[in-house]
Design goal:
The chain has 521 residues and is α+β, with helices and mostly antiparallel strands. About 2% of the residues have low confidence. A hairpin with a 2-residue loop joins strand 9 and strand 10. It has seven helices and 27 strands. Among the domains are: 251 residues, Jelly Rolls; 62 residues. The longest helix is centred in the C-terminal third of the chain and has 30 residues. The protein starts with a helix and ends with a helix. Strands 2, 5, 7, 8, 9, 10, 11, 15 and 24 form a nine-stranded antiparallel sheet that branches. Strands 1, 3, 4, 6, 12, 13, 14 and 25 form an eight-stranded antiparallel sheet that branches. It has a two-stranded antiparallel ribbon with strand order 16-23. One of its GO terms (molecular function) is calcium ion binding. Keywords: Acetylation, Calcium, Chaperone, Disulfide bond, Endoplasmic reticulum, Membrane, Phosphoprotein, Repeat, Signal, Transmembrane, Transmembrane helix. It is found in: Endoplasmic reticulum membrane.
Length: 521
Protein backbone atom coordinates (compact mmCIF):
# COMPACT_ATOMS: atom_id res chain seq x y z
CA UNK A 1 0.00 0.00 0.00
CA UNK A 2 2.84 2.37 0.80
CA UNK A 3 4.43 1.67 -2.59
CA UNK A 4 1.13 2.28 -4.37
CA UNK A 5 0.67 5.56 -2.51
CA UNK A 6 4.17 6.66 -3.44
CA UNK A 7 3.59 5.87 -7.08
CA UNK A 8 0.31 7.82 -7.01
CA UNK A 9 2.06 10.83 -5.49
CA UNK A 10 4.77 10.71 -8.15
CA UNK A 11 2.17 10.49 -10.92
CA UNK A 12 0.37 13.54 -9.54
CA UNK A 13 3.65 15.42 -9.30
CA UNK A 14 4.61 14.61 -12.89
CA UNK A 15 1.20 15.72 -14.16
CA UNK A 16 1.54 18.96 -12.21
CA UNK A 17 4.96 19.65 -13.68
CA UNK A 18 3.75 18.83 -17.18
CA UNK A 19 0.78 21.15 -16.75
CA UNK A 20 3.09 23.93 -15.54
CA UNK A 21 5.30 23.37 -18.60
CA UNK A 22 2.28 23.73 -20.88
CA UNK A 23 1.28 26.95 -19.16
CA UNK A 24 4.70 28.55 -19.75
CA UNK A 25 4.49 31.13 -22.50
CA UNK A 26 7.25 32.90 -24.36
CA UNK A 27 8.26 36.22 -22.78
CA UNK A 28 9.95 38.82 -24.94
CA UNK A 29 13.32 39.72 -23.37
CA UNK A 30 14.50 43.19 -22.51
CA UNK A 31 16.97 44.77 -24.93
CA UNK A 32 20.38 44.99 -23.19
CA UNK A 33 21.75 48.51 -23.08
CA UNK A 34 25.30 47.21 -23.54
CA UNK A 35 24.52 45.62 -26.90
CA UNK A 36 25.56 47.23 -30.17
CA UNK A 37 22.56 45.57 -31.79
CA UNK A 38 19.69 43.44 -30.49
CA UNK A 39 16.50 42.42 -32.27
CA UNK A 40 13.68 40.08 -31.23
CA UNK A 41 11.05 41.00 -33.90
CA UNK A 42 8.41 40.73 -31.15
CA UNK A 43 7.07 44.27 -31.55
CA UNK A 44 4.95 43.42 -34.61
CA UNK A 45 5.51 44.40 -38.25
CA UNK A 46 8.99 45.19 -39.49
CA UNK A 47 10.47 48.04 -37.54
CA UNK A 48 11.44 51.14 -39.47
CA UNK A 49 15.10 50.49 -38.71
CA UNK A 50 15.00 47.53 -41.12
CA UNK A 51 15.57 48.69 -44.68
CA UNK A 52 14.61 46.62 -47.72
CA UNK A 53 17.14 46.70 -50.52
CA UNK A 54 16.12 48.71 -53.59
CA UNK A 55 19.24 47.78 -55.53
CA UNK A 56 18.58 47.27 -59.22
CA UNK A 57 20.05 44.91 -61.76
CA UNK A 58 22.97 46.44 -63.61
CA UNK A 59 21.75 45.36 -67.06
CA UNK A 60 18.12 46.40 -66.37
CA UNK A 61 17.94 49.50 -64.22
CA UNK A 62 14.14 49.35 -63.94
CA UNK A 63 14.10 45.83 -62.36
CA UNK A 64 14.86 45.23 -58.70
CA UNK A 65 17.71 42.84 -58.01
CA UNK A 66 16.12 41.62 -54.78
CA UNK A 67 12.45 40.80 -55.29
CA UNK A 68 12.01 38.29 -52.46
CA UNK A 69 9.43 39.05 -49.77
CA UNK A 70 10.14 39.36 -46.04
CA UNK A 71 7.55 39.10 -43.25
CA UNK A 72 7.42 39.02 -39.46
CA UNK A 73 5.52 35.91 -38.36
CA UNK A 74 5.00 33.82 -35.26
CA UNK A 75 7.20 30.76 -34.90
CA UNK A 76 6.50 27.35 -33.40
CA UNK A 77 7.18 28.47 -29.80
CA UNK A 78 5.02 31.60 -29.66
CA UNK A 79 7.85 34.01 -30.46
CA UNK A 80 7.96 36.13 -33.60
CA UNK A 81 10.73 36.21 -36.16
CA UNK A 82 11.81 37.60 -39.53
CA UNK A 83 10.85 35.11 -42.27
CA UNK A 84 12.33 34.77 -45.76
CA UNK A 85 9.17 34.00 -47.72
CA UNK A 86 9.91 33.62 -51.44
CA UNK A 87 11.63 30.42 -52.59
CA UNK A 88 13.97 30.76 -55.56
CA UNK A 89 14.22 34.56 -55.27
CA UNK A 90 16.90 36.92 -54.00
CA UNK A 91 16.31 38.65 -50.68
CA UNK A 92 18.18 41.53 -49.03
CA UNK A 93 17.41 43.51 -45.88
CA UNK A 94 19.62 45.39 -43.39
CA UNK A 95 19.58 47.54 -40.25
CA UNK A 96 22.07 49.98 -38.72
CA UNK A 97 23.71 49.21 -35.38
CA UNK A 98 22.84 51.29 -32.32
CA UNK A 99 26.55 52.07 -32.01
CA UNK A 100 29.41 51.30 -34.40
CA UNK A 101 31.47 48.30 -33.35
CA UNK A 102 35.24 48.95 -33.26
CA UNK A 103 37.70 46.09 -32.90
CA UNK A 104 39.83 47.21 -29.96
CA UNK A 105 40.39 45.33 -26.71
CA UNK A 106 36.96 43.67 -26.32
CA UNK A 107 35.60 40.52 -27.96
CA UNK A 108 32.94 40.41 -30.65
CA UNK A 109 29.97 38.14 -29.98
CA UNK A 110 27.44 37.60 -32.75
CA UNK A 111 24.55 35.21 -32.31
CA UNK A 112 21.13 34.59 -33.80
CA UNK A 113 18.59 31.83 -34.29
CA UNK A 114 17.60 30.11 -37.54
CA UNK A 115 14.65 27.82 -38.16
CA UNK A 116 14.28 26.05 -41.52
CA UNK A 117 10.53 25.56 -41.19
CA UNK A 118 10.27 23.60 -44.45
CA UNK A 119 13.75 22.11 -44.39
CA UNK A 120 16.25 23.30 -46.99
CA UNK A 121 17.58 21.86 -50.24
CA UNK A 122 19.93 24.61 -51.31
CA UNK A 123 20.32 28.00 -49.69
CA UNK A 124 22.05 30.03 -47.02
CA UNK A 125 21.00 31.62 -43.73
CA UNK A 126 24.15 33.58 -42.94
CA UNK A 127 24.38 37.15 -41.69
CA UNK A 128 26.73 39.91 -42.79
CA UNK A 129 28.30 42.58 -40.61
CA UNK A 130 28.55 45.51 -43.00
CA UNK A 131 31.69 47.65 -42.97
CA UNK A 132 31.41 51.23 -41.77
CA UNK A 133 32.10 53.57 -44.70
CA UNK A 134 30.93 56.99 -45.77
CA UNK A 135 29.23 55.40 -48.78
CA UNK A 136 27.13 52.82 -46.92
CA UNK A 137 23.48 53.06 -47.96
CA UNK A 138 21.24 50.25 -46.77
CA UNK A 139 18.69 50.92 -49.52
CA UNK A 140 21.42 49.91 -52.00
CA UNK A 141 22.62 46.90 -50.01
CA UNK A 142 23.68 44.10 -52.40
CA UNK A 143 26.24 41.37 -52.93
CA UNK A 144 29.02 43.89 -53.63
CA UNK A 145 28.45 45.94 -50.46
CA UNK A 146 31.65 45.74 -48.36
CA UNK A 147 31.32 43.59 -45.27
CA UNK A 148 33.68 42.80 -42.41
CA UNK A 149 32.36 39.38 -41.32
CA UNK A 150 29.98 36.84 -42.83
CA UNK A 151 28.77 34.08 -40.53
CA UNK A 152 26.08 31.40 -40.53
CA UNK A 153 24.79 28.12 -41.95
CA UNK A 154 24.65 27.18 -45.63
CA UNK A 155 23.55 24.01 -47.42
CA UNK A 156 23.34 22.83 -50.99
CA UNK A 157 22.66 19.17 -51.71
CA UNK A 158 24.68 17.02 -49.33
CA UNK A 159 27.17 19.80 -48.55
CA UNK A 160 26.51 21.48 -45.19
CA UNK A 161 28.71 24.29 -43.88
CA UNK A 162 28.97 26.89 -41.18
CA UNK A 163 30.57 29.91 -42.82
CA UNK A 164 32.91 32.21 -40.99
CA UNK A 165 34.54 34.60 -43.45
CA UNK A 166 36.27 37.89 -42.70
CA UNK A 167 37.75 40.43 -45.06
CA UNK A 168 41.37 41.28 -44.28
CA UNK A 169 43.05 44.44 -45.50
CA UNK A 170 46.50 44.09 -47.03
CA UNK A 171 48.62 46.80 -45.31
CA UNK A 172 50.87 47.13 -48.38
CA UNK A 173 48.31 47.42 -51.15
CA UNK A 174 45.20 48.43 -49.19
CA UNK A 175 43.19 45.73 -50.96
CA UNK A 176 40.85 43.37 -49.13
CA UNK A 177 40.92 39.58 -49.34
CA UNK A 178 38.41 37.06 -47.96
CA UNK A 179 39.73 34.65 -45.34
CA UNK A 180 37.71 31.48 -44.73
CA UNK A 181 37.83 29.63 -41.42
CA UNK A 182 38.33 25.91 -41.85
CA UNK A 183 35.19 23.81 -41.72
CA UNK A 184 34.38 21.71 -38.69
CA UNK A 185 34.55 17.91 -38.79
CA UNK A 186 31.20 17.71 -36.94
CA UNK A 187 28.17 16.24 -38.72
CA UNK A 188 25.92 19.26 -39.34
CA UNK A 189 23.12 17.53 -41.26
CA UNK A 190 20.56 17.46 -38.44
CA UNK A 191 20.66 21.25 -38.02
CA UNK A 192 19.23 21.58 -41.54
CA UNK A 193 16.72 18.72 -41.45
CA UNK A 194 15.12 18.50 -37.98
CA UNK A 195 12.97 21.64 -38.47
CA UNK A 196 13.89 22.94 -35.03
CA UNK A 197 15.30 26.40 -34.15
CA UNK A 198 19.05 26.44 -33.61
CA UNK A 199 21.27 29.07 -32.05
CA UNK A 200 24.42 30.02 -34.01
CA UNK A 201 27.14 31.90 -32.15
CA UNK A 202 30.46 33.42 -33.23
CA UNK A 203 32.95 34.67 -30.67
CA UNK A 204 36.07 36.60 -31.66
CA UNK A 205 38.67 37.51 -29.06
CA UNK A 206 41.35 40.22 -29.10
CA UNK A 207 44.06 37.53 -28.93
CA UNK A 208 42.90 36.34 -32.40
CA UNK A 209 41.02 33.27 -31.16
CA UNK A 210 37.62 32.39 -32.51
CA UNK A 211 34.88 29.99 -31.39
CA UNK A 212 31.81 28.76 -33.26
CA UNK A 213 28.94 27.30 -31.26
CA UNK A 214 25.62 25.74 -32.20
CA UNK A 215 23.01 25.52 -29.45
CA UNK A 216 25.76 26.52 -26.97
CA UNK A 217 27.83 23.50 -28.07
CA UNK A 218 31.34 24.24 -29.36
CA UNK A 219 31.71 22.86 -32.89
CA UNK A 220 34.84 24.70 -34.05
CA UNK A 221 37.63 26.85 -32.71
CA UNK A 222 40.93 28.16 -33.96
CA UNK A 223 43.18 31.11 -34.57
CA UNK A 224 42.85 33.87 -37.14
CA UNK A 225 46.59 33.51 -37.72
CA UNK A 226 46.70 29.74 -38.22
CA UNK A 227 43.31 28.26 -39.10
CA UNK A 228 42.06 30.28 -42.07
CA UNK A 229 42.56 29.93 -45.82
CA UNK A 230 44.32 31.67 -47.40
CA UNK A 231 46.66 32.58 -44.57
CA UNK A 232 46.53 36.12 -43.21
CA UNK A 233 50.28 36.59 -43.56
CA UNK A 234 51.93 35.60 -46.85
CA UNK A 235 55.12 33.46 -46.84
CA UNK A 236 58.43 35.25 -46.38
CA UNK A 237 59.96 33.45 -49.37
CA UNK A 238 58.44 32.45 -52.70
CA UNK A 239 59.63 30.58 -55.77
CA UNK A 240 61.66 32.73 -58.15
CA UNK A 241 59.39 33.26 -61.17
CA UNK A 242 62.46 33.85 -63.37
CA UNK A 243 64.25 30.63 -62.47
CA UNK A 244 63.97 27.89 -65.13
CA UNK A 245 65.01 24.23 -65.20
CA UNK A 246 68.34 23.58 -66.99
CA UNK A 247 68.01 21.77 -70.31
CA UNK A 248 70.30 18.92 -69.20
CA UNK A 249 68.55 18.33 -65.86
CA UNK A 250 67.51 14.68 -65.64
CA UNK A 251 64.63 14.21 -63.19
CA UNK A 252 63.66 10.67 -64.31
CA UNK A 253 64.16 8.24 -61.38
CA UNK A 254 63.80 5.19 -63.69
CA UNK A 255 64.58 4.77 -67.38
CA UNK A 256 64.12 1.96 -69.98
CA UNK A 257 66.97 -0.55 -69.94
CA UNK A 258 69.14 0.31 -72.98
CA UNK A 259 70.59 -3.25 -73.04
CA UNK A 260 67.22 -5.02 -73.25
CA UNK A 261 66.18 -6.61 -76.58
CA UNK A 262 62.79 -7.80 -77.74
CA UNK A 263 62.57 -11.64 -77.85
CA UNK A 264 62.55 -13.18 -81.33
CA UNK A 265 59.21 -14.95 -80.74
CA UNK A 266 57.45 -11.80 -79.58
CA UNK A 267 54.58 -11.14 -81.99
CA UNK A 268 53.25 -7.61 -81.60
CA UNK A 269 50.74 -8.12 -84.41
CA UNK A 270 48.86 -10.98 -82.73
CA UNK A 271 45.26 -9.87 -81.96
CA UNK A 272 43.99 -9.83 -78.40
CA UNK A 273 40.78 -11.73 -79.35
CA UNK A 274 40.28 -14.50 -81.90
CA UNK A 275 37.23 -16.50 -83.10
CA UNK A 276 36.57 -19.58 -80.98
CA UNK A 277 37.73 -22.52 -83.16
CA UNK A 278 35.58 -24.97 -81.20
CA UNK A 279 32.34 -23.04 -81.64
CA UNK A 280 29.66 -24.37 -83.99
CA UNK A 281 26.60 -22.77 -85.46
CA UNK A 282 23.46 -23.43 -83.41
CA UNK A 283 20.80 -25.60 -85.00
CA UNK A 284 17.92 -23.49 -86.26
CA UNK A 285 19.98 -20.42 -87.18
CA UNK A 286 18.43 -18.78 -90.27
CA UNK A 287 21.49 -17.61 -92.15
CA UNK A 288 19.52 -16.70 -95.30
CA UNK A 289 17.24 -14.32 -93.41
CA UNK A 290 18.19 -10.79 -92.39
CA UNK A 291 17.31 -9.60 -88.86
CA UNK A 292 15.87 -6.34 -90.28
CA UNK A 293 13.87 -5.77 -93.45
CA UNK A 294 12.23 -2.81 -95.14
CA UNK A 295 8.80 -1.97 -93.79
CA UNK A 296 6.40 -3.33 -96.41
CA UNK A 297 3.62 -1.00 -95.26
CA UNK A 298 5.68 2.19 -95.45
CA UNK A 299 4.88 4.63 -98.25
CA UNK A 300 6.86 7.52 -99.58
CA UNK A 301 5.52 10.89 -98.36
CA UNK A 302 3.71 12.96 -100.95
CA UNK A 303 6.02 15.92 -100.48
CA UNK A 304 9.18 13.85 -100.90
CA UNK A 305 11.45 15.45 -103.53
CA UNK A 306 14.19 13.08 -104.69
CA UNK A 307 16.15 16.01 -106.12
CA UNK A 308 16.19 17.67 -102.73
CA UNK A 309 15.83 14.75 -100.32
CA UNK A 310 17.58 11.99 -102.23
CA UNK A 311 16.33 8.53 -103.02
CA UNK A 312 13.55 7.48 -100.68
CA UNK A 313 14.02 4.23 -98.77
CA UNK A 314 11.47 2.67 -96.46
CA UNK A 315 12.44 2.39 -92.80
CA UNK A 316 13.71 -0.93 -91.42
CA UNK A 317 11.65 -3.10 -89.09
CA UNK A 318 12.35 -6.39 -87.31
CA UNK A 319 12.04 -9.42 -89.55
CA UNK A 320 8.96 -11.37 -88.30
CA UNK A 321 10.51 -14.64 -89.53
CA UNK A 322 13.31 -14.21 -86.98
CA UNK A 323 10.98 -13.73 -83.99
CA UNK A 324 10.83 -17.51 -83.29
CA UNK A 325 14.33 -18.40 -84.55
CA UNK A 326 17.50 -18.61 -82.47
CA UNK A 327 19.14 -16.12 -84.80
CA UNK A 328 19.23 -14.63 -88.30
CA UNK A 329 21.84 -13.36 -90.71
CA UNK A 330 25.44 -14.38 -91.19
CA UNK A 331 26.67 -16.51 -88.27
CA UNK A 332 30.03 -15.71 -86.71
CA UNK A 333 31.77 -17.66 -83.94
CA UNK A 334 32.22 -15.84 -80.58
CA UNK A 335 35.55 -14.29 -79.75
CA UNK A 336 37.87 -15.65 -77.07
CA UNK A 337 41.21 -14.47 -75.63
CA UNK A 338 44.19 -15.19 -77.85
CA UNK A 339 46.74 -17.32 -75.96
CA UNK A 340 49.48 -16.00 -78.28
CA UNK A 341 48.70 -12.35 -77.56
CA UNK A 342 51.52 -10.40 -75.84
CA UNK A 343 50.86 -6.82 -76.89
CA UNK A 344 53.41 -4.18 -77.69
CA UNK A 345 56.86 -4.92 -76.29
CA UNK A 346 58.64 -2.36 -74.14
CA UNK A 347 62.00 -2.68 -72.36
CA UNK A 348 61.97 -3.05 -68.54
CA UNK A 349 62.75 -0.02 -66.36
CA UNK A 350 65.98 0.31 -64.37
CA UNK A 351 67.37 2.91 -61.96
CA UNK A 352 68.57 6.03 -63.78
CA UNK A 353 72.29 6.48 -63.05
CA UNK A 354 72.05 10.16 -64.05
CA UNK A 355 69.03 10.95 -61.85
CA UNK A 356 69.42 14.42 -60.26
CA UNK A 357 66.20 14.58 -58.26
CA UNK A 358 63.05 16.60 -58.79
CA UNK A 359 63.86 20.12 -59.87
CA UNK A 360 62.35 23.09 -58.07
CA UNK A 361 63.01 26.78 -58.57
CA UNK A 362 65.09 28.62 -56.04
CA UNK A 363 63.32 30.76 -53.46
CA UNK A 364 63.62 34.49 -53.15
CA UNK A 365 62.34 37.03 -50.67
CA UNK A 366 58.64 37.65 -51.17
CA UNK A 367 58.24 41.28 -52.31
CA UNK A 368 54.60 41.18 -51.09
CA UNK A 369 55.43 39.88 -47.62
CA UNK A 370 53.99 41.57 -44.56
CA UNK A 371 53.26 40.51 -41.00
CA UNK A 372 49.98 41.37 -39.34
CA UNK A 373 50.02 40.08 -35.78
CA UNK A 374 46.55 41.46 -35.00
CA UNK A 375 44.07 40.35 -37.70
CA UNK A 376 41.37 40.75 -35.03
CA UNK A 377 41.59 44.50 -35.59
CA UNK A 378 39.25 44.46 -38.58
CA UNK A 379 37.31 47.27 -40.23
CA UNK A 380 34.58 48.70 -37.95
CA UNK A 381 31.00 47.45 -38.37
CA UNK A 382 28.06 49.79 -38.90
CA UNK A 383 25.13 47.51 -39.83
CA UNK A 384 23.86 43.94 -40.02
CA UNK A 385 22.41 42.55 -43.23
CA UNK A 386 20.82 39.45 -44.69
CA UNK A 387 21.55 38.98 -48.41
CA UNK A 388 20.29 35.51 -49.31
CA UNK A 389 18.93 33.15 -51.92
CA UNK A 390 17.20 29.87 -51.15
CA UNK A 391 15.24 27.24 -53.05
CA UNK A 392 13.08 26.78 -49.94
CA UNK A 393 11.02 29.51 -48.32
CA UNK A 394 9.86 30.18 -44.76
CA UNK A 395 13.34 30.48 -43.23
CA UNK A 396 12.90 32.20 -39.85
CA UNK A 397 15.52 34.44 -38.21
CA UNK A 398 15.20 35.56 -34.61
CA UNK A 399 16.94 37.13 -31.61
CA UNK A 400 19.92 38.72 -33.35
CA UNK A 401 22.57 40.04 -30.94
CA UNK A 402 25.89 41.81 -31.46
CA UNK A 403 27.80 42.75 -28.32
CA UNK A 404 31.25 42.78 -26.72
CA UNK A 405 30.47 41.14 -23.38
CA UNK A 406 30.18 37.37 -22.91
CA UNK A 407 28.04 37.84 -19.80
CA UNK A 408 25.53 39.95 -21.72
CA UNK A 409 25.42 37.31 -24.47
CA UNK A 410 24.83 34.50 -21.97
CA UNK A 411 22.01 36.41 -20.29
CA UNK A 412 20.46 37.12 -23.70
CA UNK A 413 20.71 33.41 -24.57
CA UNK A 414 18.94 32.44 -21.35
CA UNK A 415 16.18 35.00 -21.89
CA UNK A 416 15.55 34.05 -25.52
CA UNK A 417 16.61 30.67 -26.81
CA UNK A 418 16.94 29.18 -23.33
CA UNK A 419 13.38 29.83 -22.15
CA UNK A 420 12.00 27.81 -25.11
CA UNK A 421 14.08 24.72 -24.37
CA UNK A 422 11.99 22.02 -22.69
CA UNK A 423 13.97 20.52 -19.76
CA UNK A 424 14.03 16.78 -19.26
CA UNK A 425 11.97 15.01 -16.63
CA UNK A 426 14.87 14.78 -14.16
CA UNK A 427 15.65 18.47 -14.61
CA UNK A 428 11.99 19.34 -14.05
CA UNK A 429 11.99 17.38 -10.79
CA UNK A 430 15.12 19.16 -9.58
CA UNK A 431 13.75 22.56 -10.60
CA UNK A 432 10.54 21.84 -8.69
CA UNK A 433 12.47 21.50 -5.40
CA UNK A 434 13.55 25.15 -5.56
CA UNK A 435 10.01 26.28 -4.71
CA UNK A 436 8.92 23.12 -2.85
CA UNK A 437 11.83 21.85 -0.67
CA UNK A 438 9.53 19.24 0.94
CA UNK A 439 9.66 17.34 -2.37
CA UNK A 440 13.09 16.01 -1.38
CA UNK A 441 11.42 13.84 1.30
CA UNK A 442 8.99 12.51 -1.28
CA UNK A 443 11.83 11.77 -3.71
CA UNK A 444 13.79 9.87 -1.03
CA UNK A 445 10.71 7.88 -0.03
CA UNK A 446 9.60 7.01 -3.56
CA UNK A 447 13.12 6.01 -4.62
CA UNK A 448 14.31 4.41 -1.36
CA UNK A 449 11.30 2.15 -0.73
CA UNK A 450 11.44 0.36 -4.12
CA UNK A 451 15.20 -0.03 -3.67
CA UNK A 452 14.76 -1.71 -0.27
CA UNK A 453 12.05 -4.02 -1.62
CA UNK A 454 14.20 -4.93 -4.58
CA UNK A 455 17.16 -5.80 -2.34
CA UNK A 456 14.93 -7.83 -0.03
CA UNK A 457 13.43 -9.98 -2.78
CA UNK A 458 16.35 -10.22 -5.16
CA UNK A 459 19.29 -10.63 -2.73
CA UNK A 460 21.14 -13.99 -3.24
CA UNK A 461 20.63 -17.02 -0.92
CA UNK A 462 24.06 -16.67 0.62
CA UNK A 463 25.70 -14.01 2.72
CA UNK A 464 29.24 -12.96 2.10
CA UNK A 465 31.92 -13.16 4.73
CA UNK A 466 35.59 -12.23 4.70
CA UNK A 467 37.47 -13.18 1.49
CA UNK A 468 39.42 -15.98 3.28
CA UNK A 469 36.31 -17.61 4.79
CA UNK A 470 33.63 -19.88 3.38
CA UNK A 471 30.22 -18.62 2.40
CA UNK A 472 27.63 -18.92 5.13
CA UNK A 473 24.56 -20.47 3.51
CA UNK A 474 21.05 -19.93 4.68
CA UNK A 475 18.91 -22.88 5.75
CA UNK A 476 17.16 -24.12 2.65
CA UNK A 477 16.03 -27.44 1.21
CA UNK A 478 18.61 -27.18 -1.54
CA UNK A 479 21.48 -29.71 -1.14
CA UNK A 480 24.75 -28.08 -0.17
CA UNK A 481 28.24 -29.34 -1.05
CA UNK A 482 30.36 -30.83 1.72
CA UNK A 483 32.77 -28.54 3.47
CA UNK A 484 36.44 -29.42 3.03
CA UNK A 485 36.69 -29.41 6.85
CA UNK A 486 33.78 -31.83 7.35
CA UNK A 487 34.90 -34.50 9.90
CA UNK A 488 33.39 -37.17 7.69
CA UNK A 489 35.90 -36.30 4.97
CA UNK A 490 38.99 -36.21 7.31
CA UNK A 491 40.80 -39.62 7.14
CA UNK A 492 42.49 -39.14 10.53
CA UNK A 493 39.27 -38.31 12.28
CA UNK A 494 37.51 -41.19 10.52
CA UNK A 495 40.16 -43.71 11.72
CA UNK A 496 39.98 -42.35 15.25
CA UNK A 497 36.20 -42.70 15.18
CA UNK A 498 36.43 -46.33 14.01
CA UNK A 499 38.89 -47.23 16.81
CA UNK A 500 36.62 -45.71 19.47
CA UNK A 501 33.58 -47.60 18.17
CA UNK A 502 35.52 -50.92 18.14
CA UNK A 503 36.54 -50.53 21.78
CA UNK A 504 32.97 -49.77 22.78
CA UNK A 505 31.71 -52.92 21.05
CA UNK A 506 34.34 -55.07 22.76
CA UNK A 507 33.41 -53.62 26.19
CA UNK A 508 29.67 -54.29 25.57
CA UNK A 509 30.42 -57.90 24.50
CA UNK A 510 32.57 -58.49 27.62
CA UNK A 511 29.84 -57.11 29.89
CA UNK A 512 27.17 -59.28 28.17
CA UNK A 513 29.35 -62.41 28.58
CA UNK A 514 29.88 -61.69 32.31
CA UNK A 515 26.09 -61.33 32.76
CA UNK A 516 25.49 -64.73 31.15
CA UNK A 517 28.02 -66.44 33.43
CA UNK A 518 26.34 -64.97 36.50
CA UNK A 519 22.93 -66.26 35.35
CA UNK A 520 24.28 -69.79 34.82
CA UNK A 521 25.76 -69.88 38.26
Amino acid sequence: MKLQSAISLCACLFLTLADEGRQNTYRSPAIPEEAHFAETFDSGPLDRKWVLSKAQKAEKEDILKYNGRWAVEEGTSGNRGLVLKSPGRHHAIAAYLRTIFHFTDKPLILQYEVLFQNGVDCGGAYIKLLTHTDHLRLSQFCDTTPYTIMFGPDKCGGNQKIYFIFRHRNPLTGKYQEKHARQTAEDLSRYFTDRQPHLYTLRLYPDNRYEILIDEYLVSKGSLLEDVDPSVNPPQEVADPHDTKPADWDDRPRIPDPMARKPMDWDEEAPELIPDPAAQRVHGWLEDEQPFISDPEAQRPDDWDEDMDGKWEPPLVSNPVCSDAVGCGQWEPPLISNPAYKGKWSPPLIQNPNYQGQWSPRTVTNPEYFEDSQPFQMSPVAAVGLELWSTTGDVLFDNILLCSDVTVAQRWTTDTWGQRQTPGLLMQLLMATEQRPWLWALYVFTVGLPAILFISFMWPDKTFGPPDQDYCYKKTDKPQPDSPHDPERDPGLWAHSENTSSRKRETRQANRKADLELKID
